[in-house]
Every structure is written in structure tokens, then in C-alpha cells.
Amino acid sequence: MEGKVNEEVFNTEKAEAMVKGLRERFREGKTKPYEWRVSQLKGIVKMIKEKEEEIMAALRADLAKPETESYLHEIFMSTSAAQFALKQLKSWMKPDKVPVEITTLPSTAKIVSEPLGVILVISAWNYPFLLSIDPVIGAIAAGNCVVLKPSEVSPATSALFAKILPEYVDNSCIKVVEGAIAETTALLEQQWDKIFYTGNGKVARIVMSAAAKHLTPVSLELGGKCPVVVDSDVNLKVAVKRIVVGKWGCNNGQACIAPDYIITTKSFAPKLVDALKTTLERFYGKDPHESADISRIVNLNHFKRLTDLLDDEMVSDKIVYGGKRDEKRLKIAPTLLLDVPRDSQIMKDEIFGPLLPIITVEKLEESYEIITSMTKPLAAYLFTKNKKLEEEFIRNISAGGMLINDIALHLANPHLPFGGVGESGIGAYHGKFSFDAFSHKKAVLSRWFLGEARARYPPYTENKQRMLRRVMNGSFVALILAVLGFPWN
Question: What is the pairing mode between strands 325-326 and 331-332?
Fold first, then answer.
């Protein structure tokens, strides 16, 4: 198939030829009409519906992802993103009329959204379907050509994309490239009109360096250590269920918005730990390794990275629940650690797995210093009934997004931007923010040939300068006089 480019060795020459072909399609204007965009989006919706079982099987092969998680977090959210774009696309494409200034009258002004051109999307392995197709939906809605590079760490989903996507979309304008470092390097050597990368900060710096050579703009969807601050006044039963499903029910903690650590008071910590233990056992059983409702660790490298964090002598005696691991099956049980040192490795690195440290403080206000001493997270969470504490948290904590009294649900609202700040990312998407991420906002001012102001043109005189100053200061009378041709000299 034309859209599947991995049947032979994919090198720089092939990447260059592919991008050249896509630029030709874009210059021809093939991707710009509303009808083309709608056709591609409908094709994606149809693909998800018809290939749901194959998508589920790929996610199961890559991550042992539970069927409910696969449906809610990947199938449903991907379909919703495409359907939302279909519903809103006409209004998104319409120019936005804006006011004009007195100095430009008579005129009209508008902002026109135009596609950037040829887009590269480099996806992540943890939500390999959603994080691939969601930015592609935005790029298509904005009228661009797109190349999708799925993650090689989730090979079943990557292979599935290469197989099925060209069957449902215009593969002269939308391509899939499989591969690893060599193929990604070949792609990054090309000139793109935007690169959209989801992953970690280390690779993001490589992507950004490659983009800088061509002054290519980037969107970087990264991560960070997402804190959860828990007040003692909460409905503990509800709060703990939401924390557990937001941590271990989101790909077993392998999610960029999953809770990375909890901060609570020393006096409340025992109650919180007991409630977490009870809920974890109720959700996943006495032996979580036998539960069908929790994902496995993606591969051996990540398994060893996580066990190294657990085996660190600074934290190995801080485990209060879990800690069981099975290397053969790549499973690590949900694990709670209490009062880990802040200078331990588990509190320095993004965990991205089923380990959850709990930090205790005397007063919750002390949590602000802990959170702000680290890089800005992709998400920050607070559980409280105290409105003053909520307002302080929102005011004092900088994060890509924030959620009060729940975990992760903010990304399900297409009217909210999803993206990071600082080291947790650059740019945002979802809903119209996806359309805007792949569009150039072109300013258009249109004037008539009437209403010439002599004071605008040389030779400049004191009378003209006085008239111009009055116009610039907003005098409507001066504007009328200027349009009528005053002053004469």
C-alpha cells in the first residue's frame, strides 16, 4: 500500500522523496477543502468502528491492557476526538472577524486559519493508539498532510496502524512510517512545517535540536512528576477510589498524567494508607499479578528501571504495601512507599509505573515548596473541601493542567487545552486547540480606496502632524476631517 512505507529499508533518501511528494500534494491544494478534511475524519471514525477488535488485540499484545481501559482511554476517546472535529470543523474554518482601530478606518479585519503544510507526528508507546491518532485528527482537521511515526516500543499497535490506516484515509497525503531510531532520525533530517512529539524530555531535546536546524515549530507533549495533595477533610472513600483508578487504572501508572507522588499531613497519612490498601485489594485482589484488570510493564528495560527504584537502599525499607514483582511476566504489583527521602531517586525521576511514594508534612501549605522545587508537572491534583486551599493551590502551583477532587478527567473535556509547561511540554491540543496547533493564524486587513487622509503622506507639515496626533489619540472629529482631506498643507 502506498501509505505503508516500511516494506523496505527506510532511509534519508526515502524520507526526502516522501516529504517531496507530500509537499506536491499540499501545493496542489488537495488537503485544504472542507470536503477532503471531512472525508478523512469520517474514514478514521469508520476505521475505529470496524477495526475495534484488532485495536484491542494490539493493545493487549503490547501492554496486556484491560479491555475496559482500551475502550475508554483509546477507542472511545479517539472516536470522540474525530466526531468532535467533524461537528465543529465548519465553525473552526470560518475566519474570525475582529474589531478595527480608528487609524485603519474604513476597513474590515479578520483572522484566517490556514494549514501549516506537512506535519510529522512522533507518537508514544503508553497509549499507542490514542496518542497516535489524536494529533493526526487535529492535523487533518486543519488541512495538512501528515506523516505518523508510531512508537516501536508498542510494535503490535505500530504494525496495525501501518496496515489499516491507509485503507481508510487518503494515503497520498497521510503516511505511516514504522521503525526505530534509524527511521526516526531519517525523518528528523527532513524539513517539516511542524513536528508534534509525545514522549520524554531526553528525546524531546533531540527532536527540538533537529527542528531548530530548519526553524521548524514543535509541540512537545511530555510529562513530569504529577503531585496529588490530599487534605484530611475529604470524602476518603471516594478520594481513594479516584486516586487508585487514576494511578493503576491508567495503564498501571504508565501514563504522563498519572499521580507520581502523594503529599498529605503526618496525622492523616495512616488513614490514607489504610484506605489505599483496602481499595487496591478490592480492585485487584490479594495477588494483583493474577488480575485481568491491570496492565503489565511495557518491556524488560522499563521493568528493570522500576525495580531499580524500588531496590534503592534509601527507599527499600519504606514499602508499606506491595512490592511484589514477576520479571518473566513483566508485572510489578501496586506499591505504596511512605515517607521516602526527598533526595532519593524515586523522587527525582518521573516514575511512570505502579509505584506511589507518599510524602508527609505538618501542614498542607508546605506542599507548595515541595512541588515548586521540582520541574513543572503536566498535571497537579488536589483533594479538598476547603475552597481557600483550592484557590491557593491554583494560584501557587504551575502545571500543564489541574484537577480538583479527581484524577485525569480534565483531558476528557475537549474544551480544555491539554499540554505542559516548562519541562512538561510546549504547546497544547485537544478539541479546537488541536486545530489551532496545526494552523497558522493569518491576519487580514482589507481597506477601500475611499477615505484618503492627506496628513498621512509627505511632505509632512506641522498642521499634518497635529492632525495625525489627534487622530492617533482617538478623536473621531479629527478622523472625519482627515478623511475629508484636511489639512490642505
Answer: antiparallel
Question: Helix 34-50 crosses helix 77-93 at what angle (to 10 degrees)?
Answer: 170
> What is the pLDDT averaged over residues 66-76?
97
Question: What strands lie across the sheet with 335-338, from one edge to the other?
Answer: 319-321, 335-338, 355-361, 261-265, 227-230, 379-383, 401-404
Spatial contact of 434 and 141, defined as CB atoms under 8 Å apart = yes
Query: In sequence order, which residues have a C-beta less than 8 Å from that of residue 488 and are 6 or more positions away?
Result: 454
CA distance 127 to 154: 9
Answer yes or no: is pLDDT of 115 > 80: yes
- Residue 35 vs residues 41, 49, 89, 346, 386: alpha-carbon distances, Å: 10, 21, 10, 50, 50
DSSP-assigned letters across all residues of 202-250: HHHHHHHHHHHTTT--EEEE-----EEEE-TTS-HHHHHHHHHHHHTTT
Tell me the catalytic residues: 221, 256
Instruction: Find the helix packing angle between 476-483 and 462-472, rounded to 10°.
Output: 130
Pairwise CA distance, residues 110 & 447, whole Å: 12
Mean pLDDT of the chain: 95
Q: Give the H or E element holding residue 110.
A: strand 107-115
AA identity, residue 228 = V
Q: pLDDT at position 489, please?
A: 66
Rounded to two decimals, what is the model's pTM? 0.95
Cell numbers at 324, concatenated = 511484589
What's the mean pLDDT in 84-112? Answer: 95
Taking CA atoms, 410 is separated from 213, 341, 381, in Å, by: 35, 30, 11
Q: Tell whether the torsion through CA atoms of 137, 72, 123 and 438 is positive or negative.
A: positive
pLDDT at 191 over 90: yes
What percent of the chain shows pLDDT beyond 70? 98
Exposed/middle/buried for 299, CB within 10 Å: 0-12, 13-18, 19+?
middle
